[in-house]
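Possible regression after last week's pipeline update?

I re-ran a chain I had predicted before the update to compare outputs. Posting the input and the new output here so someone can diff against the archived version. Not blocking, just want to make sure nothing changed silently.
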Amino acid sequence: MTKNLTRRRFMEAAGAAVVTGTAAGTTSAQAAARSRDKTIRILAISCSPRKGKTTAASLQVCLEAAEKADPRIEVELIELAGMKIDGSLAAGLPLEHGQKDDFQKLVPRLSDPKVTGIIVGTPVYFGSMTSLCKAFLDRCIAFRKKNFALSNKVAGVLAVGGVRNGGQELAIQSVQAALLCQEMIIVGDGRPTAHIGATVWNNGKTPVTEDEFGMTTAKNLGRRVAEVALKITAAGN
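New output (post-update):
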């Protein structure tokens, strides 16, 4: 009797273990499926007043590298060239009657929960960002005042200078300072360059893509933004 009872208990325990294991396996598979189905969007914002030029081309290199990191990643380049973005509105000043501002069009695209990474690119003007970039970042105060919608999104910065050491790192740091105020997660370009961001040089005579070192930092930045975005997404599942 004792022998039979022991066997019965053993079989019950074994059956429970199978059920538990199956349930755990199902849960794990479901989690993996959810992770695969979750779209990750990475935006690049070109803050050059010239549309389709060196900054946009460099950011496109970033996005191509980011897209290769995982099939779930979708990328989009947004160029601010031609847009009216009035930085003074960050001080609470109203638009004049009849005037329109393009920043509001960007709000839903930037705050979209699927957007996990944002790369800001700017030409270097006198060792700093463009006025268009500054106006854009100033207007992002709207997110801080309302819901910190940019919080915990991954951010990288790219700068294009007219010479190799033309203030790219200074411009990058000034943009990063603004993004830190949004509680964004700042990353630099990844290995093997692994510095504070993508530093690109364009001499105005050859295509920017011929800057081999600069393009390497752009690729590494895009990949790094994607890597961290994927980790954040996985942690949230």
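Follow-up from reviewer: compared with the archived run. Helices lie at 2-37, 54-68, 103-111, 131-139, 141-146, 168-180, 212-236. Marking as no regression found.
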